Amino acid sequence: MIMYTTEIQDINSFYTVESLKGVYGIIWVLVPILTLILGITIGVLVIVWLEREISAGLQQRIGPEYAGPLGVLQALADGTKLLFKENLLPSRGDIRLFSIGPSIAVISILLSYSVIPFDYRLVLADLNIGVFLWIAVSSIAPIGLLMSGYSSNNKYSFLGGLRAAAQSISYEIPLTLCVLSISLRVSNSLSTVDIVEAQSKYGFWGWNLWRQPIGFIVFLISSLAECERLPFDLPEAEEELVAGYQTEYSGIKFGLFYVASYLNLLVSSLFVTVLYLGGWNISIPYIFVSELFEINKARWVFGTTIGIFITLAKTYLFLFIPITTRWTLPRLRIDQLLNLGWKFLLPISLGNLLLTTSFQLFSL
Description:
Elements lengths: L4 H54 L15 H11 L10 H18 L17 H9 L2 H11 L3 H33 L4 H7 L9 H4 L1 H14 L11 H4 L9 H26 L11 H5 L6 H20 L1 H7 L7 H30 L1
Helix pairs in contact: 1-11, 2-11, 3-4, 3-5, 3-11, 5-6, 6-7, 6-9, 6-15, 9-11, 9-15, 11-13
């Protein structure tokens, strides 16, 4: 069989085009993921700066002011310092588990961001069980903390890991029941996009905050406990356990725990915005601005930008609550923390679910 030069060139050009299509496909898969990771990193840096500035204001002192304008680069400077610090390992600990623990804590929280919608078109994975995926994936993080505490061969660290596991189990159940109440009453779906869309029918008064006020309070307390924020920071209580499961860590591994706590705080605030505060929707008809200035072709770009801005604005306004409670409320004891979860929040969330189910049946 004789093949001419033109035929060989056509075959080569065909394979070149197909390989380029494969490369472009991989790039278009990686671009949203890398963009989300970049946005999350910037969001965490902003949270660290906000917490330091708000804490300084509450305590009437000067916050960070030398690293960059208004101290905005202080968190980046601290991260760089931890990156170059010596990474110490316990001589009698389990080195493998000791190294895996921080990674599990960070990766499990990062996976939760895949189901968060910043706008109707901006969600990495719109799943029918999006909210339950967040609860299931975030429940893996305490396993990493328990591994870290056990592998450190330190009694303080081991107690901190046990407290983290007990605290997570205690407060995940009320949090899940609150999410189930929203699904039954409002949207009949566990998709985060559907939950936000169900709140957009009546504008500001359609938010689940007004439909599920009891569930909102229980969800708020449970999310603070899941994030191990004061007054629920029992796994790392410095007065009792030195630093809990973090005691033996240094360098970048300690930095991973630090990042994981703020990642968890940000994702919890985003879910509060999505579930109870209407997500990217607002009662002001901003979409008519594009028609007013005759930029109809850019309407979807303008709407998407406004949607992202509204979601982040609600999220960061809500973040003032966990930041201020850190410097307002005293730390609970471990027995008080478990009693609050099992004896108060669990019956209240069950009653809220029963009440929601009754309303749903009567409305049919």
